[in-house]
Design goal:
This protein is α+β, with helices and mostly antiparallel strands. Helices cover 25% and strands 40% of the residues. The protein has an eight-stranded antiparallel beta barrel. α1 packs across α2.
């Protein structure tokens, strides 16, 4: 899944190059317009496009004005609170806090409970327009607090969460052969 519409991005970058070159052309006297001037125009354009691209990929992509027509992925940044319910015999729902840090092209998830911390190894947003689904998927390493490790060793797992507005819900499974579900709400 692409984070942005590449054809739109290409058109915007070409437009920025043309605009910055035209501005430089208009503010430079005609007697100073030569090959060095043309090289300087492109150098200025590359600098302007680079600065705008960095700002866009780190911050500007989150604004609603870019959603849908340009940016394809939802902004999941922030803290999500909820519960984890395991299929492990005798388990009860456990309070969890999921912290998501996201830029336009990267995402990481860290889950905290009273007993452990899970950190994502691999993470992605899946947008399936045909089935009208948005999902957050990630693989993680879980590290229990030392006092719980005898009954709950370190392990790996995977999660698939459906994204519906300010809620995330879905299932997880681990290499300990345990499974369960998450229910989370954005704070």
């Amino acid at each position: 899944m692409r984070s942005i519409k590449t054809s739109v991005a290409f058109n915007i970058l070409v437009g920025l190059v043309i605009i910055t070159c035209l501005i430089k052309l208009l503010i430079t006297p005609s007697n100073k317009q030569n090959i060095a001037f043309i090289i300087d125009c492109f150098s200025t354009s590359v600098t302007v496009c680079s600065i705008i691209s960095v700002l866009f990929c780190t911050h500007l992509w989150k604004y609603k004005v870019f959603k849908g027509w340009f940016v394809q992925i939802p902004n999941l940044n922030g803290s999500w609170k909820g519960s984890l319910t395991s299929t492990w015999e005798g388990s009860r729902p456990i309070a969890i806090n999921l912290v998501i840090e996201q830029s336009l092209f990267s995402i990481s998830c860290v889950t905290h409970t009273n007993e452990s911390k899970s950190e994502s190894i691999s993470c992605d947003c899946i947008i399936d327009k045909n089935n009208q689904k948005q999902q957050l998927t990630y693989t993680y390493v879980n590290t229990p607090n030392l006092i719980y490790r005898e009954g709950s060793p370190m392990h790996n797992g995977s999660v698939i969460l459906d994204i519906k507005g300010n809620t995330l819900s879905g299932n997880y499974w681990t290499d300990r052969k345990t499974t369960g579900c998450f229910e989370l709400i954005k704070e």
